[in-house]
Design goal:
- The complex is a heterodimer of chains A (130) and B (289).
- Chain A is α/β, with parallel strands linked by helices and 130 residues long.
- Chain A contains 4 helices and 5 strands.
- Chain A has helices at residues 23-40, 57-72, 84-92, 106-118, and strands at 6-9, 12-16, 44-48, 76-80, 101-103.
- A 5-stranded mixed β-sheet of chain A has the order 1-2-3-4-5, sandwiched between helices.
- The longest helix of chain A has 18 residues, at 23-40.
- The model of chain A has no long low-confidence stretch (mean pLDDT 86).
- Chain B is α/β, with parallel strands linked by helices and 289 residues long.
- Chain B has 2 domains: 5-153, Globin-like, CATH 1.10.490; 163-278, Transcription Regulator spoIIAA, CATH 3.30.750.
- Chain B is built from 11 helices and 5 strands, in the order αααααααββαβαβαβα.
- Chain B has helices at 5-11, 13-25, 37-55, 69-85, 89-97, 100-109, 115-158, 180-197, 214-229, 241-249, 263-277; strands at residues 163-166, 169-175, 201-208, 233-237, 258-259.
- The radius of gyration of chain B is 33 Å and the shape is rod-shaped.
- The chains are: A alpha/beta (130), B alpha/beta (289).
- The A-B interface holds A 80, 82, 84, 86-88, 90-92, 96-97, 102-105, 108-109, 111-112, 115, 122-129 and B 184, 187-188, 191-192, 194-195, 198, 200, 222, 225-233, 255-257, 273, 276-277.
């Protein structure tokens, strides 16, 4: 069974999701990610979903949960690369991924992480909370 | 009883055509301003040809069957071009109805039938030509509906521009009512602009939105949520005092969105916010490093 690779970039971890997620893959990812956050003392996690054409409630929940797990370990998560059509679908379905921060791409995601980690942040997450 | 119409059209084609043309050209409401005699002659011949071809099959009632396809095609083109020339749908249909007279008089003159048969034949021809005449009206209506639909689409496109106000700041001035169709268009346009310009802020100005009720507010909040998923924050500006009151009375929850009364205020807020993160934003936009 494949596992989703996690790359280390300085203080951050980068996860790129390119395949359909199913239960086993999702929980394997969460295992690997939480371990790696601790091992690498990572302060930030970027989850790149630019390859996903469809994001359903399962993936939405997975992203929200992973984000929460990382926060417990004192790492901020940013989901990047959401396609416009995917964003519209999520909003129409009423899944607004509350508690998950988002950015347009990896570059902006890293900017956001640096801001959030260094400075009291001025951004709102997807539910509008600071 | 064999229907004599096909044979008549074959044997007496010229007489029927001449009588029809004579009758059309001497009609009191002939639109000589819109059509020439030569064109009228050509149209009449064309109709006579396809009509004869169709009734030859023996089918004189079902205009939807394949034998009548050439007739319907000809009448479709005819109706559309007459419409473009400025004829009213009644004038166009009358062209077909006017064929009854020469056909009936040919039937009468053919003489070989008893009165009951004659009436029967005339009735059959009458019904058939009625159907064909009404068909031209339907085609006319359908093409009007196409025009209206196309105009609606154009209006939709025109009314949702997205403007880049500053580096990383988009402005979306909404004009007109915000229903669910427009909201989809707005969302798509906005999100695509966010991708294209890599903006992190969008100012949605609703000065031009006449009424804001719970439904409109829902649409606005959906748009804001979608933009956030793409990493861009939204500011809603252009809120008139009356709208502010209405929103509170309707208990619309805007606590998750930054709101400003005017776009100027929204722009000032946006620039300040950005300058906190990267001072370079205060340079002229798009300046090269």
């Amino acid at each position: 069974m494949d596992r989703i690779p996690i790359l280390k970039m300085g203080d951050f971890l980068l996860v790129t999701i390119q395949v359909d997620m199913h239960d086993q893959l999702a929980s394997a990812l969460q295992d690997d990610l939480t371990s790696k956050i601790v091992d690498a003392k990572a302060k930030g996690v970027l989850i790149d979903i630019s390859s996903l054409d469809i994001v359903d409630s399962f993936i939405g929940r997975m992203l929200a949960n992973t984000s929460a797990m990382a926060r417990v370990l004192d790492a901020q998560t940013v989901v990047v690369g959401m396609q416009p059509a995917v964003a519209i679908t999520l909003v129409e379905l009423g899944l607004n991924l509350s508690g998950v921060h988002t950015a347009l791409d990896v570059e902006k995601g890293m900017e956001m992480l640096r801001r959030r980690i260094g400075v009291p942040d001025l951004d709102r997450d997807t539910s509008g909370q600071r | 009883m064999t229907i004599p119409i096909p044979k008549l059209l074959l044997n007496q084609r010229n007489e029927i055509l001449q009588e029809w043309l004579h009758q059309q050209l001497s009609a009191p409401n002939l639109r000589t301003d819109l059509i020439s005699e030569a064109e009228l002659r050509a149209d009449s011949e064309r109709f006579l040809n396809v009509f004869s071809g169709a009734v030859k099959s023996g089918n004189v009632s079902d205009i939807l069957s394949p034998e009548y396809k050439p007739v319907l095609e000809m009448l479709g083109d005819f109706s559309r071009s007459r419409g473009l020339q400025g004829f009213s749908p009644s004038e166009t249909a009358t062209f077909v109805f006017s064929f009854k007279q020469p056909l009936f008089s040919a039937l009468r003159k053919s003489g070989q039938q008893d009165p009951a048969e004659l009436v029967e034949n005339m009735w059959v021809a009458d019904l058939l030509l009625d159907k064909l005449g009404l068909y031209t009206t339907e085609v006319y209506q359908r093409s009007r509906e196409d025009v209206i639909r196309r105009q609606q689409e154009e209006m939709l496109e025109l009314s949702t521009p997205v403007v880049q106000l500053w580096e990383g700041i988009l402005a979306l001035p909404l004009i007109g009512t915000l229903d669910s169709t427009r909201t989809s268009v707005v969302m798509e346009t906005l999100l695509q602009s966010i991708v294209d310009t890599r903006s992190e802020l969008a100012i949605i100005d609703i000065t031009g939105v006449p009424t804001v009720d719970t439904l409109v507010a829902q649409h606005l909040l959906k748009t804001v949520a979608a933009a956030r998923l793409m990493g861009a924050d939204c500011i809603i500006s252009g809120i008139r005092p009356q709208i502010a009151q209405t929103m509170v009375h309707l208990q619309i929850d805007l606590s998750t969105v930054t709101t400003k009364a005017t776009m100027a205020e929204a722009l000032r807020f946006a620039l300040n916010r950005n300058s906190g993160a990267s001072p370079s934003i205060l340079k002229a936009p798009f300046a090269k490093e």
